[in-house]
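URGENT: need a sanity check before tomorrow's submission.

F., can you look over the Cytochrome D ubiquinol oxidase subunit II record below? I want to be sure the sequence and structure line up before it goes out.
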Amino acid sequence: MPSLSNLQVIFLGIIATELMLFFVLDGADFGAGMATFFVGDDLAKRQQIMKVTGPVWGGNETWAVTAFAVMFAAYPGWYSALTSGYYPLIFLMLFFLIFRGVAFDYRNQWHSRHYNQFWDWALFVGSLMPPFLLGIVFSSTVSGVPIRNGFVYAGMGDILTPFSLLGGILVVLLSLNVGLARVIKKVKKDVAVQLTVALKRTTWALYLAVGVFAVLLPFNTRFFTNRPGIVSLLLLLLIVFLGVETWAILRQRQRLAFWLSVGTMASFIYTIFLGVFPTLIVGRTPGTSVTALSATSGPVSLLWTAWLFGFTIILMVGLQATAYHLINKYYHEPASPMV
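Structure tokens as predicted:
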């Protein structure tokens, strides 16, 4: 039986890591957008939250774009099955991402309370729905969907299961967790105190969601049959990160709490991707799954992709590092140029 080449395994790791970075970085932006809900109609407080996110949110989405670009080049069978089988959910996700992007620029542009409130709600909903939909998609791919000839033929009833919906809720809570933890480091004390209460409630909700997810995992996936050791370790890390984060929040260690929230998100994302490795999309019928071997490109395409990725990743990391350096250096409330 043929095995994966080193380059094929490396590209799987690259895709998983880029998506993990997307869920961490843009997840923090989603969480910041949802965090505006916890300060009510106070415009000044909303503006503080948005100043933390505004300069970097567009660049953070680049990690998802490059992940799907690498997927298209290195694993076209995975890309085609995913995008065609989940087209309605991906279309909805793109719609809400556009809605969120427009809301950044349109909110508070007119002297109309109803107009501004509409775009504030657009920002909230546009931040809530993408992680929810992505959580549904990836939870569905590991629990099993109808596949024929390498393509997903799934109706909404096959995709929207209790397990996949729980996955969507869990990604929303993880995004809110990392977003609140990041925002609290930057805003004024009165807003930080208000958002800390929301962060505490989010962590307790995460305990419940993670517990239910862990219970349902053996009944809905092959994680503990396929890779019991790594899955158990990642779930343990997730719980440890969450537990220590709760302690850091109570001790008002905001910076530590943020990095622990990052570890919590990363543990969950790697659990999803490594739990079924080297399967990419689990088929409901035995022998129909999309695997790394069946979905991969040829060796020449993989080699060209490696060269192109090697050049672009240097540029991406440099731009991202510069953006975060600038916002950390120049962001000061209340008179910040980082608007």
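My own read: Residues 6-274+308-328 form a domain with the Formate dehydrogenase/DMSO reductase fold fold (CATH 1.20.1630). Residues 333-339 have pLDDT under 50 and may be disordered. If you see anything odd, call me.
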